[in-house]
Write a structure and sequence with these properties.
5-stranded antiparallel β-sheet; 9 strands; 5 helices; alpha+beta; 4-stranded antiparallel β-sheet; single chain
């Protein structure tokens, strides 16, 4: 499992959404595949007032099959169940993997709104190492432009 994720920020120009921020994360099998435009998955969100990068990152990574398998090994009914929503999703607000949900179909979703750092801790516990990639801008400011994703040993958070 090796991926490169790009992170882009744009502004909506659509009717009745004009001026909303848009965070998009796209997954590629490598930095080189990015140049060819071979996209494996993507996720975006718009608006503001919540952790947009964490939301897009969680959705994009959870859409990748081998990352989803790693999450399913970590998040089970035992770790997620305290009550079941009408749609069959198990939610546990007191779990140590806060923001993780086990859906009725067995897939795991993460609420990235809990924060990028929390999402990264859950992926690390599942054995998925996600490392940010920065680019230096004018004035010495570092700007996050993407993420490197690779398999690692699962760790307790």
């Amino acid at each position: 499992m090796n991926y490169y994720l790009t992170e882009t920020w744009t502004v909506s120009r659509g009717r009745e959404t004009y001026g909303y921020n848009i965070c998009t994360i796209r997954a590629y099998s490598s930095v080189w595949e990015k140049t060819k435009g071979v996209e494996l998955a993507n996720a975006s969100c718009k608006g503001g007032g919540y952790e947009m990068a964490g939301t897009s990152l969680a959705d994009c990574l959870a859409a990748l099959p081998d990352v989803q398998q790693a999450l399913q090994r970590l998040i089970t009914k035992e770790t997620a169940e305290t009550f079941q929503d009408v749609d069959g999703t198990y939610r546990n607000p007191n779990t140590k993997y806060y923001g993780s949900f086990l859906k009725a179909d067995g897939t795991v979703s993460l609420d990235g709104g809990v924060g990028t750092s929390t999402v990264l801790e859950i992926f690390q516990a599942a054995g998925v190492n996600v490392t940010p990639n920065y680019q230096k801008k004018r004035g010495g400011k570092l700007d996050r432009i993407g993420w490197f994703v690779r398999e690692c040993n699962p760790q307790e958070s």
